[in-house]
Amino acid sequence: MTLLKLTETFIREHYAQKVPADLYVFHDIVHTENVVRAVQELMGAYALSEEEREDLLLAAWFHDAGYEQGPQGHEERSCAYARQFLHELHHLPKGRVERICSCILATKVPQQPQTLMEKILCDADLSHLGKRVYWERCGKIRQEIALVQGRIMSDEEWIDFELEFMQKHRYHTPIAMELYEKRKQKHIRQLYKQRRRLLTGLQEAQGLAPQKKKGKPKKKKERSGKEGELLELKQLRLGRGVETMFRTTYRTHVNLSSIADNKANIMLSINAIIISIVVSTLVPSFDDSPQLIVPTVILLVVCLIAMVFATLSTKPKITKGTFTKKDIEEKRGNLLFFGNYYNMDMEVFHWGMMEMIKDSDYLYSSMTRDLYFLGKVLAKKYRYLSICYTVFMYGVIVAVIAFGIAFLM
After folding, report:
1. Per-residue pLDDT tens over the stretch 64-100
2. Which of 5, 116, 219, 345 has a 20 to 30 Å separation from 30 between CA atoms?
3. Which of the four pLDDT bands, split at 50, 70 and 90, describes residue 347?
4. 3-class SS string, the chain
5. d(Cα 84, Cα 96) in Å, to the nearest integer?
């Protein structure tokens, strides 16, 4: 296996084991993969040697490996990982390892790369600023800042933060300028448009917006009765970061539920096999070996209790499956879970969904409540599973001891 392939395997295992995926939602393995691809894209335009190309790719794989302890000083920790893995473990010459580390250190913001290799890695590290994935990755950065630093920014604060960063940033290589700069400038213009919309909405809400010339009123302005509600909806818009947070949290809950069901299935299968073997082999021998009765009964009881708790952990809860219009009008109906609406008429359900979509406050509060109850269900699942595994572990120990005593008698 080549050194690059060994490095890729090491970094993937490192992220899976040491970098919390629920906190570092931007600086994750996906970001590292994107940087590696960008390095491959950029270095193709330059006459680099095979050794330089390999070193650049190794630097791309290691450049954020130190994030398991947070953003502060992660470049130095990444270099420490690179030295340990490449030089101490795989005996890469020290000169090459130091060149790799200089590329990693050059990615520290504000970037000040000196060599061509450093410039290529720096441009690859921030290539997302000029790609279609910018808005998705931008939302993940906002979410990561909120999760790791506890800094929750409003839409205005976030746009100003992004604009300041984007305007200070410069690509260092001509090929990066050619590939990414045009779209990056487009993103900057879109950020300015978003900021203008937010400022206009805030001014209108405060009654500070400039008066428009009188004339024939447009159809949209005839709905003046709903203008205040629309402005409130604009102010309640929580941004891509929070939406990404909800999406990630939902996915985490679903994964945890799947893991719990798999654990319960394992216990059901194991205990069913044990019971079938015991009933078919030990029970018929009670007449000849009566001393086996007690340990066999202990083992069967343990298996049955474990199966009961494993079954309880997967047992579905039946709900009434309906909400009234009054519940929805009072924002008490959660239409995001099928168990709450499967008995409702199609017309009522459709009306309720439209009401929820129009009201972002109702929508986000419904998602929050849904997450809460998903957590309650998960807690119940894992509580039953914990009892199941505890009973099985200690029960099997007691049963084995009982069998040992029976055979010694």
Report:
1. 999 988 889 999 999 999 999 999 999 999 999 999 9
2. 116
3. confident
4. CCHHHHHHHHHHHHHHHHCCCCCCCCCCHHHHHHHHHHHHHHHCCCCCCHHHHHHHHHHHHHCCHHHHHCCCCHHHHHHHHHHHHHHHHCCCCHHHHHHHHHHHHHCCCCCCCCCHHHHHHHHHHCHHHHCCCHHHHHHHHHHHHHHHHCCCCCHHHHHHHHHHHHHHCCCCCHHHHHHHHHHHHHHHHHHHHHHHHHHHHHHHHHCCCCCCCCCCCCHHHHCHHHHHHHHHHHHCCCHHHHHHHHHHHHHHHHHHHHHHHHHHHHHHHHHHHHHHHHHHHCHHHCCCCHHHHHHHHHHHHHHHHHHHHHHHHHCCCCCCCCCCHHHHHCCCCCCCCHHHCCCCCHHHHHHHHHHHHHCHHHHHHHHHHHHHHHHHHHHHHHHHHHHHHHHHHHHHHHHHHHHHHHHHC
5. 13
Those residues with Cβ within 8 angstroms of residue 68's Cβ, 6 or more apart along the chain or in another chain: 14, 18, 19, 20, 77
Beta carbons of 211 and 221 less than 8 angstroms apart:
no
Confidence (pLDDT) at 15: 93
The dihedrals phi and psi of 270, each to the nearest 5 degrees, come to: -60, -45
Residue 232 has pLDDT above 50, yes or no: no
pLDDT of 66: 93
Amino acid making up residue 208: L
Q: What's the confidence (pLDDT) of residue 368?
A: 81
pLDDT score of 229: 45
Domain locations along the chain: 3-190, 242-408
Which CATH number describes the domain made up of 3-190?
1.10.3210.10
Distance between CA atoms of 402 and 234, rounded to whole angstroms? 69
Nearest to 336 by CA among 361, 305, 369, 360: 369
Give residue-wise pLDDT tens across range 4-31: 999 999 999 999 999 888 889 899 999 9
From residue 331, alpha-carbon distances to 232, 353, 359 in Å are: 16, 11, 10
Distances (CA, A) of 268 to 261, 377, 387: 10, 20, 14
Residue with tokens 């018929």, as numbered in its chain: 284
